[in-house]
Amino acid sequence: MKTINKFRLKHLFKTMLAFILVLAFNVVQGQNSDTDQKAIVWETDDSTLKWGPCPGFMPEDCRIAVLQGNPKKPNTDVFFKMQGNTTVPRHWHNSPERMVLVSGKMRVNYDGQDSEIINTGDYAYGPAERPHEATCLSDEPCILFIAFEDPIDAMPMSKTEDSKK
């Protein structure tokens, strides 16, 4: 009887050891997945960039190109392009925005703050859920690099909300 228990114990130990090794391997593989990604560089005029439309409430010629990530998941980077002398109406995002103006000159108005002028190369931060509008002040298009922490969205301000401000 003692030999059967020892055999079962050894078998159980080997099974647990195998399970732990498989689990550890999967954890290490998951941790290495970021290091397996390739570094990328995008130029704003790269012919392989896929520019898509902006949300319907924005100017028709507004475009967005996803640089990295999945817009439906956290941590996505985009180029946002609007034509010169156009305005994106008041809206808000669930995610904070970290931005660098790549080309053009832009004025941004966040509710409750003085408007700010963003020049090419300037960094800007937009808090989550803070209504704002943006105007491209230059004749050339304004291209803004935006890093979103949360999935990408843009919620237009209704006429009722606008009249309260």
TrEMBL record:
It holds the Pfam family Cupin_2. Residues 79-146 form the Cupin type-2 domain. It comes from Pricia mediterranea. InterPro entries: Cupin_2 (IPR013096), RmlC-like_jellyroll (IPR014710), RmlC_Cupin_sf (IPR011051). This is Cupin domain-containing protein. Residues 1-30 form the signal peptide. Keywords: Signal.
